[in-house]
Design goal:
Two copies of one chain form a homodimer. In chain A, strands 1, 2, 3, 4, 5, 6, 13, 14 and 15 form a nine-stranded mixed beta sheet that branches. In chain A, strands 7, 8, 9, 10, 11 and 12 form a six-stranded antiparallel beta sheet that branches. By secondary structure, chain A is an alpha+beta fold. Chain A folds into two domains: 288 residues, 3-Layer(aba) Sandwich (Aminopeptidase), CATH 3.40.630; 109 residues, Alpha-Beta Plaits (2-Layer Sandwich), CATH 3.30.70.360. Chain A contains twelve helices and 15 strands. At the A-B interface, α8, β8 and β10 of A face α8, β8 and β10 of B.
Chain lengths: 410, 410
């Protein structure tokens, strides 16, 4: 690290993490902070207060996304640092919120150290990234970027039957549509996030230079057998859909393991009918989620799935594509800034693709965007044991700070 | 068939099947007739009326089991033909009820044809064989034979919270404990039942000569992995409990297939956690039910299960025995009568073991017992497509009739 390089303040970083972990504290190390819930509104109020104290102007758009704006010295498009404050049920204190807290720390450093900047520097909070109470995930970035229909989103219902639209109205954060993130007033969006995987930790890297979000396909594989009594049907007459599903699952693992070693694929969900210990299953349905940055590898995955044998263990096998997502490549210049700044601080780093979805992937369709990853202890995310040491958070904030200043100079 | 052999009446047999299929008619070919429900009480009333018309005396015991007694010419222990009138939800018109209807037809033939008999001939209805509303199955035979505690059974609750005891009180069929089936007043119990499997049909046999009920073991097999994000966890770091469960299931099938070809085993139930398509499963639990008449084969099954590798695909594997049942052998003399009578009528027949449980297996612990199986179309049971052609029902009744007369001569 060059001696003259600016850094954020590690104590302040820690204070932010500790403070925000109280909003929605579930009592055993994690939080439940659904978007626009009381806990989320507490976190938003704390965010707005702190940003106002720094001299930021607060705006919100029609999806309750918050923009805390530190004015620049010139009338130029702004640099946005954005993430989300909401969590999954019994989530941790890092997924999402760390992107907001590091952005706040970057802003506080700029203000405290009186760093001059030409462009507005914006700390932004996306509403309902997790979609835990009101699906889908990445709801407001999807609306702002034109992926989702706003009316349909307002009608999205919680399991208790409350709509997102009602929660939005009640929140006090509903603002004007003209305030939405847009490519005219903003030049770049940066999002810091925990990796949510074990790679950085295993490879002993402090910073993940995120090149993009991997493409994915999601299939259902189904096997059709014959339901009969467990005690009275000789083996030779059986068509056991669960045995066939196990065969199909093993077959797919075997074939997919032959493809690129960076491919990740998951058979995470299984449904068995009738699922009674005394009855031979007649129907099994399992999911297959496969992700890779190279569309050619995804094509190979599709080929494996679509060439699966039509029958296993005398049971018919079918597949159905549920959805697919193309690889999203982040802005090369911004990715280059992240890499340069991590190197300049002397932080071990590596290029990485995001396997999970983030608001940044939608934002990338509108304006130059990239992400910074920091390590996740044991790769945990979406659970209470989620953890990133404060020093890693601080290092991430430092890289974010320098990148904001790089963009400011553009 | 010898020219002078008595037979039951096929038209009367059909009338009985058609009549009883109305009680609890579910509207699409089958019935829902939970024990002591209104539909079951209608069937009981029809049974009692018809038996009274034949001159039978009706008694009930404290579990509402019904005994319709045709007096014999001597004061000797009686011959019981018994089965049940209750069904599972959306069950068929044969499982259970056919045993009662063939017994009624045998009684009607004896009365109509004025066949003299020394012993009382009893048509008996067991209460709550299915245990569909008030578990467990084979409830009252279990109580009468001392397997189940009556107090606990009276407290058994339906999903709506009504107890079996209340239903019993309300039914009007609660009788005296001294009327229970017992080895002093009764010399044999015979139960005709559909096979509930495809063997007789496939082997083109009219009659299954049931030698006993197979022994069984029931295990749970569990795999323990690590839950992580589907998109962010490289394959080499994964511990996928569902992949491990598929491996364990395939391994067990492969090893158990090496044992006796009459062994039946079923992996019918599977539970996966968290069962989300974007999360690697950390826990899977599946059932293994294995049945065979030879305790040695069951011992081999136990050996296979208990020697399962402790790990598949980096996941820990555990097993747990849930319950076991020893093989029940039916009375050899009675089994011999069934065989002899089927042969005498010229009905193709084969010896067979029951894979399912029946009231007869509990009765067998008190007095000489056996069963007659008739074919199940496509092996179906516990479902609406359950079907046995009336000619097969009638043939079964004929064998039952001759066997009652054999026992009468003892």
């Amino acid at each position: 690290m060059k001696n003259d390089m600016l850094t954020c303040n590690m104590d302040r970083m820690e204070d932010k993490i500790v403070t925000f972990s109280k909003f929605g504290d579930a009592g055993h190390g994690g939080i439940t902070r659904f978007s626009l819930s009381e806990a989320a509104l507490q976190a938003r109020a704390e965010f707005c207060n702190r940003m106002k104290t720094m001299g930021a102007e607060i705006k919100t758009d029609d999806m309750a996304n918050i923009y805390a704006i530190l004015k620049g010295s010139e009338d130029l498009p702004g640099v946005v640092m954005a993430s989300h404050l909401d969590s999954v049920r019994n989530g941790g204190n890092y997924d999402g919120v760390l992107g907001v807290l590091t952005a706040m720390e970057v802003a506080e450093t700029i203000v405290t150290e009186k760093i001059s900047h030409r462009r507005p520097v914006i700390v932004m909070v996306w509403t309902n990234e997790e979609g835990s109470l009101y699906p889908p995930a990445m709801m407001s970035s999807g609306v702002v970027c034109g992926k989702f229909d706003k009316k349909a989103m307002l009608a999205s219902k919680s399991p208790e039957g409350k709509t997102f639209g009602e929660a939005l109205k009640k929140s006090g954060y509903e603002g004007d549509i003209s305030n939405r993130l847009n490519p005219k007033e903003y030049i770049a969006m940066l999002e810091l996030h925990i990796e949510q995987g074990p790679v950085l930790e295993a490879e002993k890297k402090d910073i993940g230079v995120v090149e993009g979000v991997v493409g994915m396909v999601n299939y259902r594989i189904r096997t059709y057998g014959q339901s009969d009594h467990a005690g009275t049907t000789p083996m030779k007459y059986r068509k056991d859909a669960l045995l066939a599903a196990a065969s199909a699952l093993k077959y797919l693992h075997q074939e997919l393991d032959k493809l690129d070693s960076n491919l990740v694929y998951t058979t995470g969900e299984i449904v068995c009918h009738p699922c009674v210990h005394t009855v031979i299953p007649d129907f099994v349905d399992f999911s297959l989620d496969a992700r890779h940055q190279d569309p050619e590898v995804i094509r190979q995955v599709v080929k494996v799935i679509e060439n699966i044998p039509k029958e296993f263990d005398k049971c018919r096998v079918e597949y159905e594509l549920q959805w697919a997502r193309n690889t999203v490549a982040y802005n090369k210049e911004l990715v280059g800034f992240i890499k340069k700044n991590a190197d300049a601080y002397g932080y071990p780093n590596m290029n990485i693709y995001s396997g999970a979805g983030h608001d940044a992937q939608y934002a990338a369709e509108m304006l130059p965007t990239t992400m910074i990853f920091v390590p996740s202890k044991d790769g945990h995310s979406h659970c209470e044991p989620e953890f990133t040491p404060v020093e890693n958070c601080w290092k991430g904030a430092n890289v974010l700070l320098q990148t904001v200043l790089d963009v400011d100079r553009k």
